[in-house]
């Protein structure tokens, strides 16, 4: 009897180093599916929708690029709009699928969805394969429950572990379920800025990887990584890593090749160091489950913050009394990207100056960031919210000092129009009356 497998693409839109897709391709017929969940476009409990136009544009480019690469292999990507559990379930029935494969996700919601599917189809085999992390879970010298409480503790115990080489690119795939069935790619190109340097998809990802590591930028990464607004001050791999059009093992492999050609130094080591942060947050998310999204995080006490709609709106729009925060938020809204330094500033300002519940900031970042990654975003926000895996407890940035260090001539603030006439956090009082100032 012929076997039909289904591969569910998620954060792994690539043919290079895709172990999960390799595993799925041992069958007679193969269905390749991506589900776009309409709930991403409705307001969530924080009043913001899951995905901005920038993110949708980047995803769209990633999907179209993937489909293009599948065509010469005699395959097509089926892009479905709908609740993923319902979509996959109906495809299982329709095509008598015997085995479903996907990449392992650390997100709590994604893991729940997968569990529901497996419970619903007990006669079908389900396999998840790690394609998003450097390390396998069973490779760690500690159990997930005993994940070190700090990043330093984690790094020291894992940084010398062996890491599997990227697996070869997929060059053959079994045919589509029904050869004469044409799967429509139904997604229309979203309206968005075409001039973004971040173009979704594996083709652009590999080009960027090659460009970056054949330049001298990695040699000075440690000194430049904190800059606010230049292309090669940091690697800019994050959007492609989040989309999975680039794998973290490929990235590390390219880093090692760069070191072999140009030499290893503190800066090249620091790129690995930052990738380990990503790794730490991924295991942290896996360990915490739904606790990653809790107001009190992993701490016992709740922060002394609340929700102020007008303050939150002014933060989102970049219309606060802080020119630095405004510039960063305007950069985010215009491009879908913000430097790591900028993210720390605006998060610290939201929590410590505006006294807003950190989860609103995390939700807004989720909507806007091209590199949105559930583990890195919510994990970093817990840190900044003072409720995360941070031995220092609270990260309160002195913005005047920071601006003197990182934008001494005010060029960044000027470029993004950070200066505003707003002088106070509130323009209305608790009863929504305008505050008169004399
Ligand atoms: C509040 C807040 C929210 C964040 N949300 C996200 C997010 O949703 N997605 C995301 O990828 N990063 C997030 N980060 C981490 C970091 O800001 C970005 O990874 C980085 O700015 C991306 O630019 P880059 O690729 O040039 O980074 P580089 O400095 O070149 O670093 C190389 C890679 O290391 C990883 N990395 C670096 N710093 C971190 C970090 N602190 N945590 C996790 N991984 C890291 C990323 O994969 C990055 O691409 C967040 C940081 C903060 C403070």
What would you say this structure looks like, in words?
With 438 residues, the chain is of the alpha/beta class. It folds into 3 domains: 4-131, Rossmann fold; 202-288, Serine Threonine Protein Phosphatase 5, Tetratricopeptide repeat (Alpha Horseshoe); 309-415, DNA Cyclobutane Dipyrimidine Photolyase, subunit A, domain 3, CATH 1.10.579. The chain is 43% helix and 7% strand. The chain has helices at 19-24, 53-70, 84-95, 108-120, 151-158, 202-213, 221-224, 238-243, 248-262, 266-288, 309-317, 323-335, 340-353, 358-368, 374-384, 399-406, 411-415; strands at residues 4-9, 29-36, 77-81, 99-103, 125-129. A 5-stranded parallel β-sheet has the order 3-2-1-4-5. It is globular. The model has no long low-confidence stretch (mean pLDDT 93). Flavin-adenine dinucleotide binds next to helix 8, helix 10, helix 13 and helix 15.
